[in-house]
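Hi team,

As requested, here is the filled-out complex form for the alpha-D-galactopyranose run. I kept the field names the same as last time so the parser does not choke. Let me know if anything looks off before we queue the next batch.

— J.
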Amino acid sequence: MIRAHAPGRVNLIGDHTDYLGGLVLPMAVDLGTTVEGEAGGDRVVLRSANEDEPAVIPLDVDPTTVAPAWARYVAGVVAEVRPATGFTGTVMTSLPIGGGLSSSAALEVAVALALGFEGSALELAEACQRAEQAASGVPSGIMDQLASAAGVENHALLVDCRSLDFRPVAVPDDLEIVVVDSGETRTLIGSAYAERRAQAEMAEMVIGPLRDANTLDLQRLDDPLLAARARHVISENARVWAFAEALEGGWPDEAGALMAASHASLRDDYEVSTPVLDTLVERLSARPGVYGARLTGAGFGGCVVALTTPGALSEGWKVRPAAGARVTSA
Ligand code: GLA
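And here is what came back:
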């Protein structure tokens, strides 16, 4: 029997920066996905309690042709790992599906390990990022898969998405991290995400890599829309550094203020928030004991993350930074 577990993730700060070689600060959470089964046969067959139809994947699969939709993520991983034999098993998850805690990344990483993937956490994340892109058609970055593969208990991960170096940043025990689902399902997310990425890349064609740019460079962008997109990325990268420093320095008020600024930038400059997310962030931020709150992940619906004193919020999921993916029995 092989059992592999992969956590979901929440991003504390640094959104829409990973695919531009920027900085992110996600953490793996204590909710995740477990794949359990036996190797053998010539297909990968997985059943999930959350899905009516199983994933039945031939080993020489083209992921884009697979149905049902969830099976495409499994197929994307099969195409990357290319296992010598098939696998039959089950998928169990404690993550809300499509709820903004990277249930798809957790599925990919758990399946890859169950199929015998060998390599570093970074190589695992890269293979699963390619699987995600093939399955979804969305040009997503590496953050979700890397957080799931390389998480460290009690720590967030400061990731430089250009060098792909990452280091753990301790999350103090006296801070609570709460994820609240907006209840708004993310429609059109794929096309809007690709459009934002294309706009940021257009800005880079004029002023060079946004990772190296500063606010003075923005004056060279005539198009106000591209300037706004670039301003978000430049300012968000700076906020990630400052937030990591604030966590390490024990300055939660400062960290909370950076989260508020991040949300405003995602709302006004990158335009990936929604009225529902804005209202939720405002409501949570006004509560006593809440240092700050922001949308987390791609936006257009999904979840909000809040940094609070213990017990400040009674809603949402209280998550703790968890260890990354692992094979727990083989
Ligand atoms: C999604 C993508 C990530 C990242 C975030 C936005 O979660 O999968 O790669 O781009 O959106 O920060």
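Two things worth flagging: The chain has a mean pLDDT of 96. The chain is about 35% helix and 25% strand.

Thanks,
J.
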